[in-house]
Amino acid sequence: xxxxxxxxxxxxxxxxxxxxxxxxxxxxxxxxxxxxxxxxxxxxxxxxxxxxxxxxxxxxxxxxxxxxxxxxxxxxxxxxxxxxxxxxxxxxxxxxxxxxxxxxxxxxxxxxxxxxxxxxxxxxxxxxxxxxxxxxxxxxxxxxxxxxxxxxxxxxxxxxxxxxxxxxxxxxxxxxxxxxxxxxxxxxxxxxxxxxxxxxxxxxxxxxxxxxxxxxxxxxxxxxxxxxxxxxxxxxxxxxxxxxxxxxxxxxxxxxxxxxxxxxxxxxxxxxxxxxxxxxxx
Amino acid sequence: xxxxxxxxxxxxxxxxxxxxxxxxxxxxxxxxxxxxxxxxxxxxxxxxxxxxxxxxxxxxxxxxxxxxxxxxxxxxxxxxxxxxxxxxxxxxxxxxxxxxxxxxxxxxxxxxxxxxxxxxxxxxxxxxxxxxxxxxxxxxxxxxxxxxxxxxxxxxxxxxxxxxxxxxxxxxxxxxxxxxxxxxxxxxxxxxxxxxxxxxxxxxxxxxxxxxxxxxxxxxxxxxxxxxxxxxxxxxxxxxxxxxxxxxxxxxxxxxxxxxxxxxxxxxxxxxxxxxxxxxxx
Amino acid sequence: xxxxxxxxxxxxxxxxxxxxxxxxxxxxxxxxxxxxxxxxxxxxxxxxxxxxxxxxxxxxxxxxxxxxxxxxxxxxxxxxxxxxxxxxxxxxxxxxxxxxxxxxxxxxxxxxxxxxxxxxxxxxxxxxxxxxxxxxxxxxxxxxxxxxxxxxxxxxxxxxxxxxxxxxxxxxxxxxxxxxxxxxxxxxxxxxxxxxxxxxxxxxxxxxxxxxxxxxxxxxxxxxxxxxxxxxxxxxxxxxxxxxxxxxxxxxxxxxxxxxxxxxxxxxxxxxxxxxxxxxxx
Amino acid sequence: xxxxxxxxxxxxxxxxxxxxxxxxxxxxxxxxxxxxxxxxxxxxxxxxxxxxxxxxxxxxxxxxxxxxxxxxxxxxxxxxxxxxxxxxxxxxxxxxxxxxxxxxxxxxxxxxxxxxxxxxxxxxxxxxxxxxxxxxxxxxxxxxxxxxxxxxxxxxxxxxxxxxxxxxxxxxxxxxxxxxxxxxxxxxxxxxxxxxxxxxxxxxxxxxxxxxxxxxxxxxxxxxxxxxxxxxxxxxxxxxxxxxxxxxxxxxxxxxxxxxxxxxxxxxxxxxxxxxxxxxxx
Lengths: 282, 282, 282, 282
Fold this sequence. Notes:
The structure is a homotetramer of 282-residue chains. By secondary structure, the first copy, chain A, is of the alpha/beta class. The first copy, chain A, folds into two domains: 2-80, Alpha-Beta Plaits (2-Layer Sandwich); 85-279, Rossmann fold (3-Layer(aba) Sandwich), CATH 3.40.50.170. Helices cover 33% and strands 30% of the residues of chain A. Chain A has eight helices and 13 strands. In chain A, the strands form three sheets. In chain A, strands 7-6-5-8-9-10-11 form a seven-stranded mixed beta sheet. In chain A, helix 1 runs antiparallel to helix 2 (58-69), helix 3 packs parallel to helix 8 (243-266) and helix 7 packs across helix 8. The radius of gyration of chain A is 20 Å and the shape is globular. At the B-D interface, strand 10, strand 11 and strand 13 of B face strand 11 and strand 13 of D.
């Protein structure tokens, strides 16, 4: 048997589950996992189904599915689970998120193909190469930002990248780039959104005297720090913690939250509905 | 439209979702929520579906459902969502869990009918009656335990009780009683199972010097404190906390965890599979 | 022996601990708990010491203490632990925080004297009076705000109030009032500051699609929602939760966080240093 | 100025703080941090003081301290903060805790000298050597356990080791070894003690159907898994998580809890009192 992951998005209507389950029965399949949600604000219906089927021909299975659900005009995704998503990781100098992703990949925790690392610095080359991931240094200067993004677009095309992971990448991507890859770029923001936006959030948190600090993984849109949130977490801090302590504690939350978000994306568990995400977590 | 909650349990096989969704389509229904899980240990398939349908005749809808899924030999549950579960709460002297359940019921947080309170003490009578819930004092002495349980059985029958909630009820029910109401009795254990069983768990926790204390809501089986766990939570404690502090902190966790478990049960979100529960949480 | 709580604030300098411990030795005392912190930003030294001494004459003990530490020009507080802080609670229509404070007081969790409840509504009268706490209905209209605050000032004076607890009080106090009682007013903000300020924070949180919601207990200053934070907490929420669910989950965090903050204040464990609090938690 | 960390343990009595602060004043010192606790069960008094003083001669400062507090017959510790604790890490095949400790050391999060890694396997050699930490492979067979411990004792002596960190070391040390280094060996137990002791705790947790899994860092005593607990943490798991998921989630808690415990020990923030620890956390 072959394991498939199907995702479906359309306006809600009676009969969608029936139609998809009919197609799955028709191809001799069996549902292993099924999650669905109808967003009350937009009326959007989202579904994720993991099923097994005797045929490994994705196009055949997709054809049958499409025939049965076409009347709902869905956005339909289907892939073999074994055919993993391909991710490109972007990083600047801080390496804690990249190191964590590479480690988890090695441990078998992340069902994802890490195809390349891109950085505007040389700092993480040794780390990447030790894990046999090609490393591209793409410097960014104010006047060369479009050139850098052109290189990045080439790499995304060459490596057939599904997902761009900003793992503490400190450059701002242009709105044009963000729009062209909408829903494919995830960022870790080193703050508990919508708390401290902008620069030096841990220093802001210290000055404000908050008792919890956090991190947020979110999709990147043209509107900086304001894309749909995928996951967040916090840790308790006392008055005795200095800004450097908050930064160190923040590293733990950042790498954990980003890794959770990347895993959710690697398993097609996240859908964007308006300004919000639907997350079919386990 | 009428809202229904359907629960289904059977050995896993291809076509179950298709069959149920066919029946729902056939009665003019539309699925609002759907959760399912196949337990890898037992091969049991569990499903919970909330759907709306134009008919309010439960028997008609159930008949159609049954016809379509009978070949899977399921345990099938169906009720109108508006037809709430009926709970009887048992309590001894500590009133924090009872007070919390009554308060949440009043706030509209618990979609449950609290039909009666039974206690082996008079302590909580005023509290119950202030919330217009009848209070039955059923004393328990070693020699009168079966008499007390006979009274309890009568109350359960009279009030058509679906769920017995042991909200810090300090008497042990007989194995016969537990078996007769298997899957219908929920208890809050004032410890993080499988940590400290038996008496005075907070004192045990203090002596052991744990850094987290917890509480567990679980189904009651003949094997005391060992039924399937529904929910658990913990709170951090320092060396400076004395046993009485742990007891006070424990009250918060106990009432919160029990209320969460009772809500899950009120919404038919919990299934027992072997020694474990499947919880279709939101 | 009599138990005392001493608090001391001054610019940091060598010898402060020595001087205070000398005074405690001189009055035959023994230190039971001692916490201290020097704020690196302001250079302020904060100390809280719980000690026992054979004399119950506060003025005598304070005199000796003052003599020994006067050269540091401290703000010095001393009271018998048995002489509890006196709190006035303000509430509007939502009663969950008030009910929780009254319940904890009754359970012996809050070493605080709840002397009166003030509300701009009649809603919580029965609740307060059931716990034998006098209830004052002080309506507030735009044109009568100063009259209402005059009444409030009278009550504060009459009851010798140390602490004003805004337990979901929905009126805004004037800057003059906030300044006159600076460091004595605590509020529960139904959001994770500095997240969603202003009205309907749970609806804002829902629209933003956050994955954690929270509450913050903070001192009230003229600058609304921006006083020093005492405690905060969060709870995880999924996309499936509607605004009314967030409100219900929020009630739990609000009452828990406010109760923790009030207990900290009741035990003189909180000092304000600039925009931040020093919290000597257990 | 030189920064010192002093620790003191004795039976509680009036005047201890006064005596120590007198000595600190006498050497021209200034207290930077001070924590103390009197254990109500044993009557033991524990104190940790960080202070600065103009002299860098530890023996001089210690001499003066000792003279002033000798009448309390304390166990007195004093060191320059810059003179870091020396740790030897023991590991078997799983490398996540070791990798994490080495990474944090490199980031400046752990004020500790990692002097050597000892393993009964070759697995982690490359990792250790990449961080310039010498690696000793000391195989353990039932008949050679005492020989292995003799080698270990030699390494502890040679490297002047203060702390032995069992970072997922899967061999059991002999009671004699544990006794000889009592209070100097910390272990990470891959379970939430006193939950699942013994082998395969995540499988036990899965079978029991717990909703939270955890890890505990504790001192090692002859009584396996039963030494005083230093820190613990948990993570929420659902029914959908398989044993391998629990193991992966467990890695995160294990490395985080162990790192926290090691940092506390590196900063002399942990005292053992009977079966419990006093932890002067920030």
